[in-house]
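User: two proteins, same treatment. go.

Assistant:
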Amino acid sequence: MIDYGEISQVLSHSLIVFVILIVLTRLIGKKFLAQMTFFDFVTGITIGTIGGAYVTTEVRGHYVLLSPIILTALVVLIGYVTLKSTPARKLIEGEPLVVIQNGKIFEENMRKIRYNMDDLMMQLREKGVFNLSEVESAVLEPHGKLSVLKKSQHLPITPKDLNMATAYKGVSSEIIRDGHIVEQNLKQNNLTHEWLYNELSAKNIKDIREIFLATLSTDGNLYVDLRNDNPKYIQEVEDDDSVI
Protein backbone atom coordinates (compact mmCIF):
# COMPACT_ATOMS: atom_id res chain seq x y z
CA MET A 1 0.00 0.00 0.00
CA ILE A 2 1.26 3.44 -0.88
CA ASP A 3 2.07 5.56 2.16
CA TYR A 4 1.21 9.11 1.07
CA GLY A 5 2.52 10.45 4.37
CA GLU A 6 6.01 9.12 3.59
CA ILE A 7 5.81 10.48 0.03
CA SER A 8 4.83 13.88 1.39
CA GLN A 9 7.70 13.71 3.87
CA VAL A 10 10.35 12.79 1.29
CA LEU A 11 9.04 15.55 -0.98
CA SER A 12 9.19 18.21 1.73
CA HIS A 13 12.60 17.09 3.03
CA SER A 14 14.12 16.96 -0.45
CA LEU A 15 12.77 20.42 -1.19
CA ILE A 16 14.24 21.77 2.07
CA VAL A 17 17.67 20.28 1.29
CA PHE A 18 17.57 21.63 -2.26
CA VAL A 19 16.73 25.17 -1.14
CA ILE A 20 19.41 25.09 1.58
CA LEU A 21 22.06 23.92 -0.90
CA ILE A 22 21.17 26.73 -3.31
CA VAL A 23 21.31 29.33 -0.54
CA LEU A 24 24.63 28.04 0.81
CA THR A 25 26.16 27.93 -2.66
CA ARG A 26 25.12 31.53 -3.29
CA LEU A 27 26.52 32.58 0.10
CA ILE A 28 29.84 30.85 -0.55
CA GLY A 29 30.05 32.78 -3.80
CA LYS A 30 31.72 32.58 -7.18
CA LYS A 31 35.14 31.75 -5.76
CA PHE A 32 33.91 28.33 -4.64
CA LEU A 33 33.04 27.50 -8.24
CA ALA A 34 36.11 29.06 -9.82
CA GLN A 35 38.99 27.55 -7.86
CA MET A 36 38.10 24.90 -5.34
CA THR A 37 40.78 24.39 -2.71
CA PHE A 38 41.11 21.22 -0.61
CA PHE A 39 39.21 22.94 2.20
CA ASP A 40 36.44 24.00 -0.21
CA PHE A 41 36.23 20.43 -1.52
CA VAL A 42 35.89 18.97 1.98
CA THR A 43 33.29 21.61 2.87
CA GLY A 44 31.25 20.87 -0.24
CA ILE A 45 31.33 17.11 0.39
CA THR A 46 30.35 17.64 4.02
CA ILE A 47 27.41 19.87 3.12
CA GLY A 48 26.17 17.35 0.57
CA THR A 49 26.60 14.44 2.97
CA ILE A 50 24.68 16.21 5.73
CA GLY A 51 21.90 17.05 3.29
CA GLY A 52 21.68 13.45 2.13
CA ALA A 53 21.79 12.11 5.70
CA TYR A 54 18.95 14.41 6.69
CA VAL A 55 16.66 12.88 4.08
CA THR A 56 17.70 9.27 4.70
CA THR A 57 17.23 9.49 8.47
CA GLU A 58 13.84 11.17 8.29
CA VAL A 59 12.33 8.96 5.57
CA ARG A 60 11.67 5.28 6.12
CA GLY A 61 11.98 2.34 3.76
CA HIS A 62 12.29 2.42 0.01
CA TYR A 63 10.57 5.81 -0.19
CA VAL A 64 13.98 7.41 0.32
CA LEU A 65 14.76 6.42 -3.29
CA LEU A 66 12.30 9.09 -4.40
CA SER A 67 14.64 11.79 -3.08
CA PRO A 68 17.20 11.71 -5.95
CA ILE A 69 14.31 11.67 -8.43
CA ILE A 70 12.77 14.72 -6.78
CA LEU A 71 16.12 16.55 -6.63
CA THR A 72 16.73 15.81 -10.31
CA ALA A 73 13.26 17.09 -11.18
CA LEU A 74 13.94 20.26 -9.18
CA VAL A 75 17.22 20.83 -11.04
CA VAL A 76 15.40 20.46 -14.38
CA LEU A 77 12.65 22.80 -13.17
CA ILE A 78 15.16 25.41 -12.00
CA GLY A 79 16.94 25.16 -15.35
CA TYR A 80 13.65 25.84 -17.15
CA VAL A 81 12.75 28.75 -14.85
CA THR A 82 16.16 30.40 -15.25
CA LEU A 83 15.88 29.94 -19.01
CA LYS A 84 12.56 31.78 -19.14
CA SER A 85 13.03 34.37 -16.39
CA THR A 86 15.94 36.81 -16.22
CA PRO A 87 15.23 37.89 -12.60
CA ALA A 88 15.15 34.24 -11.50
CA ARG A 89 18.40 33.57 -13.35
CA LYS A 90 20.09 36.49 -11.60
CA LEU A 91 18.75 35.39 -8.21
CA ILE A 92 19.76 31.72 -8.52
CA GLU A 93 22.86 31.81 -10.71
CA GLY A 94 24.07 35.33 -9.99
CA GLU A 95 25.28 37.79 -12.61
CA PRO A 96 28.61 38.92 -14.07
CA LEU A 97 30.63 41.31 -11.96
CA VAL A 98 33.18 43.77 -13.31
CA VAL A 99 36.48 43.60 -11.38
CA ILE A 100 38.62 45.63 -13.80
CA GLN A 101 37.43 48.43 -16.08
CA ASN A 102 39.54 50.84 -18.10
CA GLY A 103 42.58 49.30 -16.44
CA LYS A 104 41.35 50.12 -12.92
CA ILE A 105 40.57 47.49 -10.28
CA PHE A 106 37.14 47.68 -8.61
CA GLU A 107 38.04 46.85 -5.02
CA GLU A 108 34.44 47.31 -3.84
CA ASN A 109 33.11 44.68 -6.24
CA MET A 110 35.87 42.29 -5.21
CA ARG A 111 35.03 42.87 -1.56
CA LYS A 112 31.37 42.03 -2.13
CA ILE A 113 32.20 38.50 -3.24
CA ARG A 114 35.29 38.02 -1.03
CA TYR A 115 37.52 37.88 -4.10
CA ASN A 116 41.11 38.82 -3.23
CA MET A 117 44.09 39.95 -5.30
CA ASP A 118 45.70 36.51 -5.22
CA ASP A 119 42.57 35.04 -6.83
CA LEU A 120 42.55 37.79 -9.45
CA MET A 121 46.23 37.43 -10.34
CA MET A 122 45.96 33.65 -10.53
CA GLN A 123 43.04 33.76 -12.95
CA LEU A 124 44.75 36.44 -15.03
CA ARG A 125 47.82 34.20 -15.34
CA GLU A 126 45.55 31.37 -16.45
CA LYS A 127 44.49 33.68 -19.30
CA GLY A 128 48.14 34.33 -20.21
CA VAL A 129 48.21 37.77 -18.56
CA PHE A 130 51.17 38.38 -16.25
CA ASN A 131 51.01 42.17 -16.20
CA LEU A 132 47.96 44.07 -14.97
CA SER A 133 48.85 47.02 -17.19
CA GLU A 134 47.85 44.91 -20.21
CA VAL A 135 44.23 44.51 -19.03
CA GLU A 136 41.45 46.76 -20.30
CA SER A 137 38.52 44.94 -18.68
CA ALA A 138 37.96 41.82 -16.60
CA VAL A 139 34.59 40.32 -15.69
CA LEU A 140 33.98 37.54 -13.17
CA GLU A 141 31.25 35.37 -14.68
CA PRO A 142 28.45 33.70 -12.66
CA HIS A 143 30.22 30.31 -12.95
CA GLY A 144 33.36 31.80 -11.38
CA LYS A 145 35.54 32.07 -14.49
CA LEU A 146 37.30 35.32 -15.35
CA SER A 147 36.77 36.85 -18.81
CA VAL A 148 39.60 39.18 -19.81
CA LEU A 149 39.90 41.81 -22.53
CA LYS A 150 43.42 43.05 -23.14
CA LYS A 151 44.22 46.58 -24.19
CA SER A 152 44.32 47.00 -27.97
CA GLN A 153 48.09 47.42 -28.09
CA HIS A 154 48.51 44.04 -26.40
CA LEU A 155 46.11 42.10 -28.63
CA PRO A 156 47.57 39.76 -31.27
CA ILE A 157 47.40 40.99 -34.86
CA THR A 158 44.77 39.27 -36.99
CA PRO A 159 44.46 39.02 -40.78
CA LYS A 160 41.55 41.45 -40.53
CA ASP A 161 43.82 44.06 -38.95
CA LEU A 162 46.12 43.73 -41.95
CA ASN A 163 43.22 43.73 -44.45
CA MET A 164 44.23 40.25 -45.59
CA ALA A 165 41.70 37.94 -47.23
CA THR A 166 41.41 34.49 -45.68
CA ALA A 167 39.89 31.27 -46.93
CA TYR A 168 37.03 29.54 -45.16
CA LYS A 169 38.21 27.05 -42.56
CA GLY A 170 35.66 24.68 -41.09
CA VAL A 171 35.57 21.29 -39.41
CA SER A 172 37.28 18.45 -41.27
CA SER A 173 35.28 15.35 -42.20
CA GLU A 174 36.21 11.79 -41.31
CA ILE A 175 36.43 9.85 -44.56
CA ILE A 176 38.02 6.63 -43.26
CA ARG A 177 37.88 5.44 -39.68
CA ASP A 178 39.61 2.30 -38.47
CA GLY A 179 39.94 0.86 -41.96
CA HIS A 180 36.32 1.53 -42.99
CA ILE A 181 34.96 4.24 -45.29
CA VAL A 182 32.47 6.63 -43.70
CA GLU A 183 29.99 6.58 -46.55
CA GLN A 184 27.80 9.39 -45.23
CA ASN A 185 30.68 11.87 -45.06
CA LEU A 186 31.90 10.83 -48.48
CA LYS A 187 28.48 11.56 -49.98
CA GLN A 188 28.09 14.84 -48.07
CA ASN A 189 31.30 16.08 -49.70
CA ASN A 190 30.08 14.93 -53.16
CA LEU A 191 33.02 12.54 -53.48
CA THR A 192 33.22 9.09 -55.01
CA HIS A 193 35.09 5.90 -54.20
CA GLU A 194 37.09 6.41 -57.37
CA TRP A 195 38.32 9.81 -56.15
CA LEU A 196 39.22 8.34 -52.76
CA TYR A 197 41.17 5.40 -54.18
CA ASN A 198 43.02 7.73 -56.55
CA GLU A 199 44.05 9.93 -53.61
CA LEU A 200 45.21 6.91 -51.64
CA SER A 201 47.11 5.55 -54.65
CA ALA A 202 48.92 8.89 -54.96
CA LYS A 203 50.05 8.39 -51.35
CA ASN A 204 51.24 4.82 -52.16
CA ILE A 205 48.52 3.24 -50.04
CA LYS A 206 47.26 0.00 -51.54
CA ASP A 207 45.07 -1.42 -48.78
CA ILE A 208 42.40 0.69 -47.10
CA ARG A 209 42.61 -1.56 -44.03
CA GLU A 210 46.05 -0.10 -43.33
CA ILE A 211 44.46 3.27 -42.56
CA PHE A 212 43.68 4.19 -38.98
CA LEU A 213 42.15 7.58 -39.80
CA ALA A 214 41.68 9.74 -42.90
CA THR A 215 40.12 13.19 -42.77
CA LEU A 216 39.25 15.73 -45.44
CA SER A 217 39.83 19.42 -44.67
CA THR A 218 37.61 22.16 -46.06
CA ASP A 219 40.31 23.09 -48.59
CA GLY A 220 40.23 19.57 -50.07
CA ASN A 221 43.40 18.10 -48.53
CA LEU A 222 43.24 14.48 -47.42
CA TYR A 223 45.12 13.67 -44.21
CA VAL A 224 45.95 9.99 -43.72
CA ASP A 225 47.28 8.25 -40.62
CA LEU A 226 48.36 4.61 -41.03
CA ARG A 227 48.28 1.86 -38.46
CA ASN A 228 51.53 1.05 -36.69
CA ASP A 229 53.38 4.02 -38.18
CA ASN A 230 54.52 5.32 -34.81
CA PRO A 231 57.92 7.05 -34.80
CA LYS A 232 60.89 5.02 -33.58
CA TYR A 233 61.67 7.66 -30.98
CA ILE A 234 58.96 9.15 -28.78
CA GLN A 235 59.94 12.09 -26.62
CA GLU A 236 59.33 11.54 -22.92
CA VAL A 237 57.32 14.25 -21.19
CA GLU A 238 57.87 12.98 -17.65
CA ASP A 239 60.88 14.02 -15.58
CA ASP A 240 63.74 11.55 -15.42
CA ASP A 241 64.10 10.45 -11.80
CA SER A 242 67.66 9.29 -12.44
CA VAL A 243 68.87 12.85 -13.02
CA ILE A 244 70.21 14.46 -9.86
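Protein 2:
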Amino acid sequence: MAKMTKRTECFMARTIGFIGLGLMGRGMARTLIRKGHRVSLYNRTRAKAEEVASLGGKVAATPAEAAREAEVVFTMVSDPPALFEVVESKDGILDTIRPGAVVIDSSTVSPQATLRVAERLKAKGASMLDAPVFGSKNEAESGQLGFMIGGDRKVFDSVQDLFEGCLGKSARYIGPQGMGAYAKLVFNLTICIMLQGLNEGLTLAAKAGIDPGLMYDVLMGGRAKAGIFEFKGPSVLQRDFTPFFPLKLMNKDLKLALDAAHALAVPMPALAAIKEVFSSAMAAGQAEEDFSSTIKVLERQAGVEVKRRS
Protein backbone atom coordinates (compact mmCIF):
# COMPACT_ATOMS: atom_id res chain seq x y z
CA MET A 1 0.00 0.00 0.00
CA ALA A 2 1.24 3.47 -0.86
CA LYS A 3 2.59 5.37 2.09
CA MET A 4 3.88 8.91 2.54
CA THR A 5 7.01 8.65 4.60
CA LYS A 6 8.09 11.04 7.29
CA ARG A 7 10.72 13.55 6.20
CA THR A 8 14.20 12.67 7.39
CA GLU A 9 17.59 14.33 7.19
CA CYS A 10 20.80 13.29 5.45
CA PHE A 11 22.45 11.46 8.32
CA MET A 12 25.74 10.49 6.70
CA ALA A 13 27.86 11.38 3.71
CA ARG A 14 27.78 8.75 0.98
CA THR A 15 29.87 7.98 -2.06
CA ILE A 16 27.52 8.54 -4.99
CA GLY A 17 27.73 8.19 -8.74
CA PHE A 18 25.45 10.49 -10.71
CA ILE A 19 24.85 9.80 -14.40
CA GLY A 20 22.87 12.21 -16.57
CA LEU A 21 23.23 15.94 -15.95
CA GLY A 22 20.48 17.43 -18.06
CA LEU A 23 17.79 19.88 -17.02
CA MET A 24 16.84 17.94 -13.87
CA GLY A 25 19.94 15.88 -13.19
CA ARG A 26 22.30 18.82 -12.80
CA GLY A 27 20.15 20.33 -10.04
CA MET A 28 19.86 17.02 -8.24
CA ALA A 29 23.61 16.42 -8.42
CA ARG A 30 24.41 19.90 -7.16
CA THR A 31 22.03 19.40 -4.25
CA LEU A 32 23.80 16.16 -3.27
CA ILE A 33 27.18 17.93 -3.38
CA ARG A 34 25.89 20.82 -1.28
CA LYS A 35 24.58 18.29 1.27
CA GLY A 36 28.09 16.94 1.74
CA HIS A 37 28.07 13.77 -0.36
CA ARG A 38 31.06 12.61 -2.41
CA VAL A 39 29.73 12.65 -5.96
CA SER A 40 31.32 11.28 -9.13
CA LEU A 41 29.66 12.81 -12.20
CA TYR A 42 29.17 11.51 -15.72
CA ASN A 43 27.45 13.10 -18.69
CA ARG A 44 27.87 12.43 -22.41
CA THR A 45 28.66 16.12 -22.84
CA ARG A 46 31.64 16.41 -20.49
CA ALA A 47 31.29 20.19 -20.12
CA LYS A 48 28.03 19.70 -18.20
CA ALA A 49 29.78 17.40 -15.73
CA GLU A 50 32.63 19.87 -15.32
CA GLU A 51 30.14 22.67 -14.61
CA VAL A 52 28.51 20.69 -11.80
CA ALA A 53 31.87 19.50 -10.49
CA SER A 54 32.89 23.11 -9.88
CA LEU A 55 30.91 22.81 -6.62
CA GLY A 56 33.14 19.96 -5.46
CA GLY A 57 32.21 16.82 -7.37
CA LYS A 58 34.56 14.68 -9.48
CA VAL A 59 34.16 14.21 -13.24
CA ALA A 60 34.09 10.59 -14.47
CA ALA A 61 35.07 9.61 -18.00
CA THR A 62 32.48 6.80 -18.24
CA PRO A 63 29.42 5.50 -16.39
CA ALA A 64 31.58 2.62 -15.18
CA GLU A 65 34.02 5.04 -13.58
CA ALA A 66 31.20 6.97 -11.92
CA ALA A 67 29.83 3.74 -10.43
CA ARG A 68 33.13 2.09 -9.46
CA GLU A 69 33.34 3.20 -5.81
CA ALA A 70 29.74 4.25 -5.34
CA GLU A 71 27.42 3.01 -2.64
CA VAL A 72 24.52 4.59 -4.55
CA VAL A 73 24.29 5.40 -8.26
CA PHE A 74 21.67 7.82 -9.59
CA THR A 75 20.66 7.75 -13.24
CA MET A 76 18.66 10.59 -14.78
CA VAL A 77 18.55 10.06 -18.54
CA SER A 78 16.11 10.80 -21.33
CA ASP A 79 14.56 7.48 -22.35
CA PRO A 80 14.88 3.67 -22.24
CA PRO A 81 17.65 3.42 -24.90
CA ALA A 82 19.71 5.98 -22.97
CA LEU A 83 19.22 3.98 -19.76
CA PHE A 84 20.29 0.73 -21.45
CA GLU A 85 23.36 2.49 -22.83
CA VAL A 86 24.65 3.79 -19.49
CA VAL A 87 23.91 0.50 -17.72
CA GLU A 88 24.63 -2.27 -20.20
CA SER A 89 27.09 -0.98 -22.80
CA LYS A 90 30.87 -1.24 -22.68
CA ASP A 91 32.10 0.97 -19.82
CA GLY A 92 28.58 0.94 -18.41
CA ILE A 93 27.44 0.64 -14.81
CA LEU A 94 27.33 -3.17 -14.95
CA ASP A 95 31.09 -3.29 -15.54
CA THR A 96 31.95 -1.92 -12.09
CA ILE A 97 28.84 -1.90 -9.87
CA ARG A 98 29.65 -3.20 -6.38
CA PRO A 99 27.65 -5.97 -4.68
CA GLY A 100 25.26 -4.29 -2.26
CA ALA A 101 25.18 -1.02 -4.18
CA VAL A 102 21.85 0.60 -5.01
CA VAL A 103 21.03 2.09 -8.40
CA ILE A 104 18.29 4.72 -8.24
CA ASP A 105 16.82 5.46 -11.64
CA SER A 106 14.96 8.76 -11.61
CA SER A 107 14.41 8.78 -15.37
CA THR A 108 10.95 8.44 -16.87
CA VAL A 109 11.13 5.13 -18.70
CA SER A 110 8.84 2.19 -19.37
CA PRO A 111 8.15 -0.34 -16.61
CA GLN A 112 9.56 -3.01 -18.92
CA ALA A 113 12.85 -1.12 -19.19
CA THR A 114 12.98 -0.84 -15.41
CA LEU A 115 12.46 -4.57 -14.93
CA ARG A 116 15.12 -5.42 -17.51
CA VAL A 117 17.75 -3.26 -15.84
CA ALA A 118 16.80 -4.46 -12.36
CA GLU A 119 17.37 -8.07 -13.40
CA ARG A 120 20.79 -7.27 -14.85
CA LEU A 121 21.80 -5.47 -11.66
CA LYS A 122 20.50 -8.28 -9.47
CA ALA A 123 22.83 -10.69 -11.28
CA LYS A 124 25.70 -8.46 -10.10
CA GLY A 125 24.49 -8.45 -6.50
CA ALA A 126 23.19 -4.87 -6.70
CA SER A 127 19.68 -3.51 -6.17
CA MET A 128 17.57 -1.01 -8.06
CA LEU A 129 14.81 1.43 -7.24
CA ASP A 130 12.71 3.05 -9.95
CA ALA A 131 12.24 6.51 -8.49
CA PRO A 132 10.96 9.02 -11.06
CA VAL A 133 10.35 12.56 -9.89
CA PHE A 134 7.75 15.25 -10.11
CA GLY A 135 8.72 18.88 -9.93
CA SER A 136 10.69 21.29 -12.08
CA LYS A 137 14.33 22.24 -12.49
CA ASN A 138 13.84 24.78 -9.68
CA GLU A 139 12.73 22.06 -7.25
CA ALA A 140 15.65 19.88 -8.37
CA GLU A 141 18.04 22.70 -7.50
CA SER A 142 16.46 23.39 -4.11
CA GLY A 143 15.94 19.78 -2.99
CA GLN A 144 12.14 20.02 -3.14
CA LEU A 145 11.28 17.24 -5.60
CA GLY A 146 8.67 14.55 -5.10
CA PHE A 147 9.51 10.88 -5.71
CA MET A 148 7.38 7.87 -6.68
CA ILE A 149 9.28 4.72 -5.78
CA GLY A 150 9.13 1.12 -6.89
CA GLY A 151 11.35 -1.71 -5.69
CA ASP A 152 12.14 -3.62 -2.53
CA ARG A 153 10.84 -1.78 0.52
CA LYS A 154 13.93 -2.61 2.58
CA VAL A 155 16.18 -1.16 -0.11
CA PHE A 156 14.10 2.03 -0.11
CA ASP A 157 14.33 2.26 3.68
CA SER A 158 18.13 2.00 3.48
CA VAL A 159 18.41 5.11 1.27
CA GLN A 160 15.31 7.01 2.37
CA ASP A 161 17.33 9.93 3.69
CA LEU A 162 18.62 10.67 0.18
CA PHE A 163 15.07 11.16 -1.06
CA GLU A 164 13.52 13.18 1.73
CA GLY A 165 16.47 14.62 3.60
CA CYS A 166 18.46 15.67 0.54
CA LEU A 167 16.69 15.73 -2.79
CA GLY A 168 13.00 15.92 -2.07
CA LYS A 169 10.12 17.15 0.01
CA SER A 170 8.30 13.82 -0.25
CA ALA A 171 8.89 10.21 -1.22
CA ARG A 172 5.94 7.92 -1.73
CA TYR A 173 6.58 4.19 -1.83
CA ILE A 174 4.28 2.78 -4.52
CA GLY A 175 5.10 -0.93 -4.57
CA PRO A 176 7.36 -3.55 -6.18
CA GLN A 177 9.81 -2.96 -9.01
CA GLY A 178 8.25 -1.07 -11.91
CA MET A 179 5.43 0.52 -9.92
CA GLY A 180 7.27 3.83 -9.65
CA ALA A 181 7.62 3.88 -13.42
CA TYR A 182 3.91 3.19 -13.88
CA ALA A 183 3.02 5.91 -11.36
CA LYS A 184 5.09 8.51 -13.21
CA LEU A 185 3.35 7.73 -16.51
CA VAL A 186 -0.04 8.11 -14.82
CA PHE A 187 1.10 11.37 -13.24
CA ASN A 188 2.25 12.89 -16.53
CA LEU A 189 -0.71 11.78 -18.63
CA THR A 190 -3.07 13.27 -16.03
CA ILE A 191 -1.22 16.59 -16.04
CA CYS A 192 -1.34 16.79 -19.84
CA ILE A 193 -5.04 15.99 -20.06
CA MET A 194 -5.81 18.65 -17.44
CA LEU A 195 -3.64 21.26 -19.14
CA GLN A 196 -5.27 20.54 -22.48
CA GLY A 197 -8.62 21.32 -20.87
CA LEU A 198 -7.32 24.71 -19.76
CA ASN A 199 -5.77 25.40 -23.16
CA GLU A 200 -8.99 24.57 -24.99
CA GLY A 201 -11.08 26.67 -22.61
CA LEU A 202 -8.84 29.72 -22.91
CA THR A 203 -8.66 29.38 -26.69
CA LEU A 204 -12.46 29.29 -26.94
CA ALA A 205 -12.70 32.30 -24.63
CA ALA A 206 -10.21 34.27 -26.73
CA LYS A 207 -12.02 33.43 -29.97
CA ALA A 208 -15.34 34.49 -28.44
CA GLY A 209 -13.88 37.84 -27.39
CA ILE A 210 -13.28 37.25 -23.68
CA ASP A 211 -9.97 38.39 -22.20
CA PRO A 212 -8.15 35.05 -21.59
CA GLY A 213 -6.61 36.52 -18.44
CA LEU A 214 -10.03 37.32 -17.05
CA MET A 215 -11.30 33.85 -17.97
CA TYR A 216 -8.32 32.30 -16.22
CA ASP A 217 -9.08 34.32 -13.07
CA VAL A 218 -12.68 33.10 -13.14
CA LEU A 219 -11.56 29.48 -13.45
CA MET A 220 -9.08 29.84 -10.62
CA GLY A 221 -11.74 31.35 -8.40
CA GLY A 222 -14.03 28.33 -8.70
CA ARG A 223 -13.97 24.57 -8.59
CA ALA A 224 -11.93 24.38 -11.79
CA LYS A 225 -8.86 25.55 -9.85
CA ALA A 226 -5.96 23.09 -10.13
CA GLY A 227 -2.27 23.04 -9.29
CA ILE A 228 -1.14 22.58 -12.88
CA PHE A 229 -3.30 25.55 -13.93
CA GLU A 230 -1.72 27.67 -11.21
CA PHE A 231 1.77 26.65 -12.34
CA LYS A 232 1.38 26.92 -16.12
CA GLY A 233 -1.47 29.39 -16.63
CA PRO A 234 0.44 32.61 -15.91
CA SER A 235 3.32 31.71 -18.24
CA VAL A 236 0.91 30.78 -21.05
CA LEU A 237 -0.91 34.10 -20.66
CA GLN A 238 2.46 35.92 -20.74
CA ARG A 239 3.59 33.93 -23.80
CA ASP A 240 6.58 32.58 -21.88
CA PHE A 241 7.40 29.05 -23.00
CA THR A 242 10.84 28.79 -21.43
CA PRO A 243 11.32 25.05 -20.87
CA PHE A 244 10.79 23.97 -17.29
CA PHE A 245 10.06 20.58 -18.89
CA PRO A 246 10.67 20.34 -22.65
CA LEU A 247 7.81 19.35 -24.91
CA LYS A 248 9.93 16.63 -26.56
CA LEU A 249 10.36 14.81 -23.25
CA MET A 250 6.68 15.01 -22.37
CA ASN A 251 5.87 13.73 -25.85
CA LYS A 252 8.12 10.73 -25.12
CA ASP A 253 6.41 10.16 -21.79
CA LEU A 254 2.95 10.16 -23.37
CA LYS A 255 4.09 7.55 -25.89
CA LEU A 256 5.35 5.39 -23.03
CA ALA A 257 2.00 5.81 -21.27
CA LEU A 258 0.10 4.78 -24.41
CA ASP A 259 2.34 1.75 -24.82
CA ALA A 260 1.73 0.75 -21.20
CA ALA A 261 -2.02 1.18 -21.62
CA HIS A 262 -2.05 -0.94 -24.78
CA ALA A 263 -0.03 -3.67 -23.07
CA LEU A 264 -2.56 -3.78 -20.22
CA ALA A 265 -5.61 -3.42 -22.54
CA VAL A 266 -6.71 -0.18 -20.89
CA PRO A 267 -8.64 2.24 -23.16
CA MET A 268 -7.17 5.75 -23.20
CA PRO A 269 -9.22 7.90 -25.61
CA ALA A 270 -8.25 11.24 -24.05
CA LEU A 271 -4.57 10.30 -23.88
CA ALA A 272 -4.60 9.23 -27.53
CA ALA A 273 -6.08 12.58 -28.53
CA ILE A 274 -3.58 14.55 -26.44
CA LYS A 275 -0.70 12.59 -27.98
CA GLU A 276 -1.82 13.81 -31.42
CA VAL A 277 -1.66 17.40 -30.17
CA PHE A 278 1.89 16.83 -28.96
CA SER A 279 2.84 15.25 -32.29
CA SER A 280 1.53 18.34 -34.09
CA ALA A 281 3.54 20.59 -31.80
CA MET A 282 6.67 18.53 -32.43
CA ALA A 283 6.13 18.76 -36.19
CA ALA A 284 5.79 22.54 -35.86
CA GLY A 285 9.26 22.83 -34.31
CA GLN A 286 8.26 23.27 -30.66
CA ALA A 287 10.32 20.36 -29.28
CA GLU A 288 12.60 22.53 -27.12
CA GLU A 289 9.83 24.76 -25.75
CA ASP A 290 7.98 24.03 -22.52
CA PHE A 291 5.25 21.43 -22.92
CA SER A 292 2.63 24.11 -22.17
CA SER A 293 3.34 25.49 -25.64
CA THR A 294 0.92 22.89 -27.01
CA ILE A 295 -1.64 25.71 -26.81
CA LYS A 296 -0.06 27.03 -30.02
CA VAL A 297 -1.54 24.06 -31.92
CA LEU A 298 -5.04 25.25 -30.95
CA GLU A 299 -4.18 28.89 -31.62
CA ARG A 300 -3.00 28.16 -35.14
CA GLN A 301 -6.16 26.28 -35.97
CA ALA A 302 -8.44 28.86 -34.33
CA GLY A 303 -6.59 31.89 -35.69
CA VAL A 304 -6.28 33.54 -32.29
CA GLU A 305 -3.59 34.22 -29.66
CA VAL A 306 -4.24 33.44 -26.00
CA LYS A 307 -2.74 36.31 -24.03
CA ARG A 308 -3.72 38.34 -20.98
CA ARG A 309 -5.01 41.69 -22.20
CA SER A 310 -5.11 43.60 -18.95
